[in-house]
Amino acid sequence: MDVNNITKKYSNGEITVVWKSGLCIHSKKCWTGLPEVFDPRVRPWIRPEGAGTDAIIAQVDKCPSGALSWFRNEDSDE
Ligand code: SF4
Prior knowledge:
single chain, alpha+beta, Alpha-Beta Plaits, three-stranded antiparallel sheet, globular, binds iron/sulfur cluster
């Protein structure tokens, strides 16, 4: 596995946030916009239980690089 290009998933039971490290340009938008969920100083750095689903979706959609995305768990086959 290429440690510079990993995909991580974080679920709150309702939605899953997907983060692709290789696409992240470290713009800081996510963790300045919603620090209750995104905190690069701790592991795991995304804690989807930190805010409501709507707030998480709004923040994920602001990611400028496409590193962050999300899907509804009910739409997933996993
Ligand atoms: S907003 Fe997107 S590109 Fe910026 S730090 Fe967060 S994940 Fe990385």
